[in-house]
Amino acid sequence: MADNSLDRFIAEARGGWGPLGSSLVQRCRAGLAALTLADPREDWLAALLAERPASRELHRDAVHGFVLLAHAEPGGLYRPPHDHGRSWVVYGVQSGTLEVVTYAKVPDVPDDERGDERLVARDSGVLRPGEARAYLPGDVHDTRCLGDGALLFRFTERDLGHEDRVERRMTRYCERDGEWRAPLRAP
Question: Cβ distance 148 to 96 under 8 Å?
Answer without folding.
Answer: yes
